[in-house]
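Can you give me the bound-state structure? Components:
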Amino acid sequence: MDKVKPLHEVMTLLRDGQTIMIGGFLCAGTPELLIDAMIEKNIRELTVIANDTGFEDRGIGKLVVNKQIRKMIATHVGTNKETGRQMTAREMEVELIPQGTMAERIRAAGVGLGGILTPTGVGTVVEEGKEKLIIDGKEYLLELPLRAEIALLHAYKADKAGNLVYRRASRNFNPLMAMAADLVIVTAEHIVETGEIDPDEVMTPAPLVDIVVLINNE
Amino acid sequence: MTDIRNIIAKRVADFFEAGTLANLGIGIPSLVANYIPADKNITLHSENGFIGLGPNPEEGLEDMDIVNAGGIPVTILPGGASFDSATSFGIARGGHVDLTVLGALEVDEKGNLASWNVPGKLLPGMGGAMDIVVGAKKVIIAMEHMTREGTPKILKECTLPLTAVGVVDIIVTELGVMEVTEEGIVLRELAPGITKEEIQSKTEATLIIPVEIGIMVIL
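Here's the bound-state model for the whole set.
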């Protein structure tokens, strides 16, 4: 099965008001091509789940500057002053969660767990409104799964069936998000024939991926 | 005369035991890497998804798939490994990181740490700090002793929103080295020329002063 599609076809699936996970960590592993296309199409009122909001001129930061995000769920937004400004001016809602907790909440959604128990955030503002459980005498917070309608990811290499390989620090949240969204769209720097990636090297198996878009192909 | 930040970083580096897997925060903590002797065989964890963090690449050789947790291009040393964020924080939260060094806005005598949020000012987010300090076997705070306004940062009780409760083990400042214990903060070393009266006058928490206090070796 060939999951490779042209960008314009993919963009018909993105609409105002959707909840979208975007892979990447300060732009390493962020699908820049899809972000640019979202800006061009001016898709608005988005709820975005991602590690950070990049920089004002790179990554998710560009969606922030263009005011396309209604609510941002992130772990750190300090690299983008515009996010801070919109947050302070209450133009955009920002929910900050610890990075390891974000990873596990997304993973939980993707692997069919009803939540996870973490010691992270106990005794801090993070615990507000959350159930606490004591296991073997130690306190844990119950953190609930986090999922999205769409995941926009970036891989180094994909085969036509959708098997993915990530490179270096650009892996980050990408393989977790690939399991936690209804529709998974991936940009790839290289696309190879199905079978060319050794099964032992596949980092995200093809059935988790819906669409692959080649970078620089349109 | 070396600046205060490097004095602190150098002293922190002496805490590294051979074979340690460590995570360094931004600011003074990131300077610590410059002072760890190569023969100690230290491995650095970068929470955005790899171990084997190496020095910054030469200009023109940057690889934007290899950045540190601050988004700055770095390198991965031979023998390093990359992984996803759940594995990365599993390594941190799961107690596999021996030591973390990070800065602080406030620390208190119960070992509570405030390092991520000043209400009313810009709130950048906690990033990975909450997970890392909760999981690391040892937490060292490397910071200037007082705020820029000249107020104490080592308090009886933190006033700012906490990063974590009861996690700090060691505090290193330009004035001395302190250890957080069940009884409170014990003064272990004083920088040359600093008296115990002076360090106490710049510290809100009451320091426990043992009979023997070491002299902090600086560079």
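A couple of observations. The first strand of chain A starts at residue 19 and ends at 22. Chain A touches chain B through 49 residues (CB under 8 Å).
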